[in-house]
Write a structure and sequence with these properties.
Elements: E1 6-13, E2 16-23, E3 27-35, E4 40-47, E5 53-59, E6 63-71, E7 77-86, E8 90-91, E9 95-97
Antiparallel strand pairs: 1-2, 2-3, 3-4, 4-5, 5-6, 6-7, 7-8, 7-9
Length: about 100
Amino acid sequence: MLNLPFVIEKKVADDETICYAYVRFSSRRTMTVTKADGKAVMSSYEYDLRSRLLKETKKDKTSEETYVYRYDWNGNQLQRLWERYEQSKGRTEPSSTSPIIS
């Protein structure tokens, strides 16, 4: 079985296009949202060997946001850590959020 990357591009509004890139058993590697004026936000994704999302990074020209995910041995998400960096302000304080358990 070949494991080649593939790309899907969708126009979701008159002024917005989303481009998804997938590899490795259909795991999303990148997502780029581009506006008609050329401004873009690119998200990249990292996974572990069990295909659980470990890290998500969103970048544009002026800022970068990072989310890091932690799981227990059963694969349940325990924590999501967030950090933001803006060129004009520097790093913000990291925050931690837990998933809602019902």
